[in-house]
Design brief:
This protein is α+β, with helices and mostly antiparallel strands. The protein has 3 domains: 365 residues, no CATH class; 112 residues; 132 residues, Sandwich (Jelly Rolls), CATH 2.60.120. Helix content is 45%, strand content 17%. A hairpin with a 5-residue loop joins strand 16 and strand 17.
Amino acid sequence: MASWLSTKKIDWALVVILVVAFIFRFLYLGMKPPHFDEGINGWFVDQLISNGYYSYDPTNYHGPFHFYVLWVFKFFFGRNLWALRLSASCFGLAGIYLITELKPYVGKMTAYGAALFCSVSPGIVFYTRYAIHESELFFFSLLGIIGFLRYGTVKDKTSLWLIGLGVTGMVITKETFVVHLACFVIAWFCLKIVESVFKSSEPVKYVHPKFTEPDVLIVISVCLFLFIAFYSGFFLHFRGVADFFRSFQAWIGTAQKGNGHQKPPWYWVDLFQRYELVATIGLVASLRLFFPSSRGLRLIGIYGVGVLLAYSLVSYKTPWCVLNIVWPFYLVVAGIIAEVGARNRSYWAGAMAAFVVLSIPGAAKSVDLNFHKYEDESEPYVYVQTFSDIMRVHEKLMHIVEKDPSKYSMSIKLFMDSNWPIPWLFGDFTKAVYYGAPNGVDPSADLILIDEKYKTLIESRLLGTYFTLTFRLRSAQERVVAYFEEKLFKDEFPADFPKFIPKPLEPVVPGAGLLAEYFQNSTWTGLPLFKKMLPLPNFNMTDNQRPLPAPFGILFSGEIYVPESGSRVFYLSSDDGSDLYIDGKQVIENLGAHPDQMRSGLIDLKKGWHPILIHYNDFGGGMVLRLWWNNASGFQEDINPKYFRFRSPEGRG
């Protein structure tokens, strides 16, 4: 009998809502590849652990709270994608619960209906499964609003704590707290104006405060302490507190310019229409708030319209912000349905049916988006999302280290213009080095990842055999080529999998231009790394096209044919150094590290073939070498390739 009575006390509607919210937020949480921003946030946590505190950067804007929370979950659950996202899902679930706690101010049916809508909302679900700041901002803004509404009806110490912790949580989470606080203050004044014409459904009552001034001082002191503690890296980096105030100048500039994320003003409405059917209805239905209705619902509805307008005016728009824009409109719709349902018993049943029916499209879209199309770049919510192929690369790495943990020290090199979230994904590998362009770096490693545009250049430098895998890292980015060292990864690929096999050096053929010998030093000493025949000693390469890491040297040797006897002026232009020898005599000296510059030299030569030698060395930057002469008429001209040949290395200066 006692157990039956305790079961009767369970709020089953609340249980169902929270179970639905839990399933949508936690089921297969790690199935989606890490997002660009998730990789950066995970890397920030690595830096926090390395430094002992989070060093707040005003150009990063986002507050420190999220990173400390991520650190806690990493400490207890390890370094994995599930643990990285767990905090966002927990705050997302807690936010759904807070919506149900609005029942004293908007009515139970309204609060529970809105919580149900939010539980299955495609945008809210999608972005509470991401390791980004929006879930915490969602939670703390609701906490502050509940505190404010409670203050208007109870004015107790609990309301002070809810307001203080809610606002403080927003401040230490994300810079956009300014938008939400400003919109809420404006919404309060707008509510007063509306109520002067259209009264709210409940009368305004004066409530005597149930707290003292010391209570206020304690709340302010604790909140100020939390603010300083988080922004100062728990008192190890006090500059972070000052940097908090400096961040707004940079943030305002970014918000205005867009920095690659600029969208039109109607961007959010388009998202509503595509994904958030109920919120779209709520946007239109907000006009209902001009008629007698709950004060709490009116305030939240006006606040929601204000936030939507504010975010629409800002040029910089990223779709995850929809999480903190959409939920007030779900309350508006739930309020209208609840108002109809309160008329009589038959209407109540219809209202319950309306909540379920209106939840179905959002739930279906959430399932499709979160469990099937989470990397479909045609979906606007799938924004800068990483594709699954990088996880195939990661799985092969993990297979190797599972067999031999010492392989965490394998050499990994990336030559990519944009590589996030890979630095976090490969964070346990101690010898992973990240470059942009090749810039003369020796690319050889156990695993190499490059932007496909560097393929020809990188392969010209590789000496070993590699399995190759081509894939896309994320939308709006060119393809990536992965090179897996054959011996190390032989068990990870079938024998017939595509491979890169370096081409053997071409044999030196007499009469085929000049012999170019490449040295991994600038003094042309020791044995050359490789040799090739070039028709002319001329090239103009960018920094990305360097055949060897700087410094290096090239030695050109062979013979040059002079068609007529007499004096000839030779011109040699180079970046960096070069010189010219003919018949063993130095004709031009242009050595040293310098930008492209030209030198000339005069020499008397008889008609016929003469030994020629050109030294070239490079110390970084661009690569330029060009040789030309004066013809018999005294005019400068390029030397015809037919006037060069290689027969022997004799004649070196």
